[in-house]
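Practice problem 4.
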Protein backbone atom coordinates (compact mmCIF):
# COMPACT_ATOMS: atom_id res chain seq x y z
CA UNK A 1 0.00 0.00 0.00
CA UNK A 2 2.78 2.43 0.98
CA UNK A 3 4.79 1.52 -2.14
CA UNK A 4 1.72 2.16 -4.31
CA UNK A 5 1.14 5.59 -2.74
CA UNK A 6 4.81 6.54 -3.13
CA UNK A 7 4.81 5.34 -6.74
CA UNK A 8 1.73 7.44 -7.50
CA UNK A 9 3.30 10.47 -5.79
CA UNK A 10 6.60 10.15 -7.72
CA UNK A 11 4.67 9.59 -10.95
CA UNK A 12 2.69 12.77 -10.22
CA UNK A 13 5.96 14.71 -9.64
CA UNK A 14 7.44 13.30 -12.86
CA UNK A 15 4.35 14.22 -14.93
CA UNK A 16 4.16 17.66 -13.30
CA UNK A 17 7.83 18.29 -14.17
CA UNK A 18 7.24 17.29 -17.82
CA UNK A 19 4.08 19.41 -18.10
CA UNK A 20 5.76 22.48 -16.60
CA UNK A 21 8.81 22.02 -18.84
CA UNK A 22 6.64 21.69 -21.96
CA UNK A 23 4.70 24.78 -20.89
CA UNK A 24 7.96 26.72 -20.86
CA UNK A 25 8.02 27.33 -17.11
CA UNK A 26 11.49 28.29 -15.87
CA UNK A 27 13.42 25.46 -14.14
CA UNK A 28 13.70 27.34 -10.83
CA UNK A 29 9.90 27.83 -10.69
CA UNK A 30 9.38 24.14 -11.50
CA UNK A 31 11.73 23.16 -8.66
CA UNK A 32 9.86 25.48 -6.26
CA UNK A 33 6.49 23.96 -7.21
CA UNK A 34 7.84 20.41 -6.73
CA UNK A 35 9.42 21.41 -3.40
CA UNK A 36 6.07 22.82 -2.24
CA UNK A 37 4.32 19.57 -3.20
CA UNK A 38 6.88 17.52 -1.23
CA UNK A 39 6.61 19.85 1.80
CA UNK A 40 2.80 19.60 1.70
CA UNK A 41 3.00 15.80 1.70
CA UNK A 42 5.51 15.76 4.57
CA UNK A 43 3.50 18.31 6.57
CA UNK A 44 0.36 16.19 6.24
CA UNK A 45 2.23 13.12 7.53
CA UNK A 46 3.78 15.06 10.44
CA UNK A 47 0.41 16.62 11.26
CA UNK A 48 -1.21 13.18 11.51
CA UNK A 49 1.66 11.82 13.63
CA UNK A 50 1.92 14.65 16.14
CA UNK A 51 -0.80 17.31 15.88
CA UNK A 52 -4.19 16.04 14.80
CA UNK A 53 -7.23 15.30 16.94
CA UNK A 54 -8.80 13.38 14.07
CA UNK A 55 -8.46 9.78 15.25
CA UNK A 56 -9.93 8.42 11.99
CA UNK A 57 -6.89 9.81 10.14
CA UNK A 58 -4.53 8.34 12.76
CA UNK A 59 -6.34 5.00 12.66
CA UNK A 60 -6.00 4.86 8.88
CA UNK A 61 -2.26 5.66 9.12
CA UNK A 62 -1.76 3.04 11.85
CA UNK A 63 -3.63 0.40 9.83
CA UNK A 64 -1.70 1.24 6.65
CA UNK A 65 1.64 0.92 8.45
CA UNK A 66 0.92 -1.80 10.98
CA UNK A 67 3.97 -3.80 9.85
CA UNK A 68 6.30 -0.92 10.75
CA UNK A 69 7.52 -1.49 14.36
CA UNK A 70 6.66 2.12 15.32
CA UNK A 71 3.01 1.60 14.33
CA UNK A 72 2.72 -2.09 15.28
CA UNK A 73 2.27 -1.39 19.00
CA UNK A 74 -0.51 1.22 18.53
CA UNK A 75 -2.17 -1.13 16.05
CA UNK A 76 -2.11 -4.08 18.47
CA UNK A 77 -3.41 -1.83 21.27
CA UNK A 78 -6.43 -1.05 19.12
CA UNK A 79 -6.95 -4.39 17.39
CA UNK A 80 -4.72 -7.05 18.92
CA UNK A 81 -4.45 -9.35 21.90
CA UNK A 82 -2.09 -8.94 24.84
CA UNK A 83 0.25 -11.50 23.25
CA UNK A 84 0.30 -9.52 20.01
CA UNK A 85 1.05 -6.35 21.95
CA UNK A 86 4.00 -8.02 23.67
CA UNK A 87 5.21 -9.38 20.33
CA UNK A 88 5.04 -5.91 18.76
CA UNK A 89 7.12 -4.52 21.64
CA UNK A 90 9.69 -7.32 21.25
CA UNK A 91 9.94 -6.54 17.53
CA UNK A 92 10.46 -2.82 18.25
CA UNK A 93 13.17 -3.59 20.84
CA UNK A 94 15.09 -5.63 18.25
CA UNK A 95 14.53 -3.07 15.47
CA UNK A 96 15.50 0.16 17.23
CA UNK A 97 19.15 0.68 18.07
CA UNK A 98 18.78 4.14 19.65
CA UNK A 99 18.87 3.60 23.43
CA UNK A 100 15.95 5.98 24.12
CA UNK A 101 13.61 4.07 21.79
CA UNK A 102 14.86 0.60 22.71
CA UNK A 103 14.60 1.16 26.48
CA UNK A 104 11.29 2.98 26.22
CA UNK A 105 9.84 -0.11 24.55
CA UNK A 106 11.52 -2.31 27.19
CA UNK A 107 9.91 -0.13 29.86
CA UNK A 108 6.47 -0.57 28.26
CA UNK A 109 6.98 -4.33 28.06
CA UNK A 110 8.06 -4.56 31.70
CA UNK A 111 5.00 -2.55 32.76
CA UNK A 112 2.74 -4.88 30.76
CA UNK A 113 4.38 -7.86 32.47
CA UNK A 114 4.06 -6.10 35.85
CA UNK A 115 7.82 -6.48 36.40
CA UNK A 116 8.79 -3.30 38.28
CA UNK A 117 12.47 -4.23 38.59
CA UNK A 118 12.84 -4.52 34.81
CA UNK A 119 10.81 -1.34 34.39
CA UNK A 120 13.15 0.55 36.75
CA UNK A 121 16.21 -0.77 34.93
CA UNK A 122 14.78 0.28 31.55
CA UNK A 123 13.76 3.72 32.90
CA UNK A 124 17.34 4.35 34.11
CA UNK A 125 18.68 3.50 30.64
CA UNK A 126 16.29 5.62 28.52
CA UNK A 127 18.38 8.76 29.12
CA UNK A 128 16.18 11.10 27.09
CA UNK A 129 13.78 13.65 28.51
CA UNK A 130 10.87 13.73 28.96
CA UNK A 131 10.75 9.94 28.48
CA UNK A 132 13.07 9.20 31.42
CA UNK A 133 11.12 11.35 33.86
CA UNK A 134 7.80 10.00 32.60
CA UNK A 135 8.95 6.41 33.15
CA UNK A 136 10.26 7.19 36.65
CA UNK A 137 7.11 9.09 37.63
CA UNK A 138 5.02 6.21 36.27
CA UNK A 139 6.90 3.77 38.52
CA UNK A 140 6.52 6.16 41.48
CA UNK A 141 2.74 6.22 40.86
CA UNK A 142 2.62 2.42 40.82
CA UNK A 143 4.58 2.35 44.07
CA UNK A 144 2.33 5.08 45.53
CA UNK A 145 5.29 7.41 46.15
CA UNK A 146 3.31 10.61 45.64
CA UNK A 147 6.25 12.98 46.16
CA UNK A 148 8.12 11.35 43.25
CA UNK A 149 5.13 11.31 40.88
CA UNK A 150 5.71 14.85 39.65
CA UNK A 151 8.54 16.38 37.67
CA UNK A 152 9.26 19.63 35.86
CA UNK A 153 10.65 17.43 33.08
CA UNK A 154 7.16 16.19 32.15
CA UNK A 155 6.95 18.78 29.39
CA UNK A 156 4.17 17.19 27.33
CA UNK A 157 0.77 18.37 28.62
CA UNK A 158 -0.70 14.83 28.64
CA UNK A 159 2.05 13.33 30.81
CA UNK A 160 1.16 14.51 34.33
CA UNK A 161 -2.55 13.64 34.02
CA UNK A 162 -1.52 10.19 32.72
CA UNK A 163 0.67 9.68 35.81
CA UNK A 164 -2.23 10.81 38.03
CA UNK A 165 -4.44 8.26 36.23
CA UNK A 166 -1.91 5.50 37.00
CA UNK A 167 -1.95 6.49 40.67
CA UNK A 168 -5.78 6.58 40.71
CA UNK A 169 -5.81 3.11 39.10
CA UNK A 170 -3.44 1.81 41.77
CA UNK A 171 -5.63 3.30 44.51
CA UNK A 172 -8.76 1.87 42.80
CA UNK A 173 -10.30 5.35 42.63
CA UNK A 174 -12.56 5.02 39.57
CA UNK A 175 -13.71 8.66 39.61
CA UNK A 176 -10.17 10.07 39.70
CA UNK A 177 -9.00 7.49 37.16
CA UNK A 178 -11.70 8.51 34.68
CA UNK A 179 -11.07 12.24 35.25
CA UNK A 180 -7.27 12.08 34.83
CA UNK A 181 -7.42 9.61 31.94
CA UNK A 182 -9.87 11.86 30.08
CA UNK A 183 -7.72 14.94 30.79
CA UNK A 184 -4.64 13.17 29.48
CA UNK A 185 -6.44 12.07 26.30
CA UNK A 186 -7.80 15.57 25.68
CA UNK A 187 -4.32 17.10 25.97
CA UNK A 188 -2.60 14.56 23.71
CA UNK A 189 -2.41 14.77 19.93
CA UNK A 190 -1.72 12.46 17.01
CA UNK A 191 -0.48 8.92 17.58
CA UNK A 192 0.03 9.61 21.31
CA UNK A 193 -3.68 10.43 21.70
CA UNK A 194 -4.52 7.24 19.78
CA UNK A 195 -2.31 5.17 22.12
CA UNK A 196 -3.83 6.73 25.25
CA UNK A 197 -7.39 6.13 24.02
CA UNK A 198 -6.68 2.43 23.52
CA UNK A 199 -4.35 2.00 26.49
CA UNK A 200 -6.51 3.46 29.23
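Answer key:
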Amino acid sequence: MRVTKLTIFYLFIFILTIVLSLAGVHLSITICIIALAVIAMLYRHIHILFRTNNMKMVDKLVKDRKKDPFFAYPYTLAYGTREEQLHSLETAIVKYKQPAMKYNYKFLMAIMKENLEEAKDAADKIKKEPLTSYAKCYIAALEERTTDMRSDQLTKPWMQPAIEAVYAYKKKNETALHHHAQESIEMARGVQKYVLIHEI
